[in-house]
């Protein structure tokens, strides 16, 4: 009997004109979980983020994520440590049916201006499987030992 063939899902990337010349995202090491995203801001017009302010940074890329997966836009630890710059809506969710430009919402939590320059690696994207559950409306939820306890309820008697 012929073994069932398993096709590895792939990521489609479409370049918009303003990302021309920038490296496409790629896994930098064999075990990398994420691929870095680069800022597609004009060479002669870096995007300045003042302390406490946020900015939506273009990547110049459209992703075609295979059905059953999502993209998670996450901060880069180096930017967070060195400059206090992180993603505001982390992890940002990229739906598999989204066909717009992927953008990164950065916030400057540091105390100095932060300049986003063309090609700067500003965030990373991790792909993960998603499950869409069917919804069942019920009058009651099944009883459990935890019940309604949460927010530090365990361990206290
Ligand atoms: O960091 C992000 C987060 C989202 N998106 C894009 C892709 C995503 O599929 C879409 C919608 O994101 P989300 O569902 O988080 O935003 P929303 O405020 O609920 O908008 P919508 O009503 O369009 O779903 O916006 C980005 O480009 N970057
Ligand atoms: Mg949404």
Automatic annotation (TrEMBL):
InterPro entries: dUTPase, dUTPase-like, dUTPase-like_sf, dUTPase_trimeric. Pathway: Pyrimidine metabolism; dUMP biosynthesis; dUMP from dCTP (dUTP route): step 2/2. Keywords: Hydrolase, Magnesium, Metal-binding, Nucleotide metabolism. One of its GO terms (biological process) is dUTP catabolic process. Residues 23-155 form the dUTPase-like domain. It holds the Pfam family dUTPase. HAMAP family: dUTPase_bact (MF_00116). This is Deoxyuridine 5'-triphosphate nucleotidohydrolase. The lineage of its organism: Bacteria, Pseudomonadati, Pseudomonadota, Alphaproteobacteria, Hyphomicrobiales.
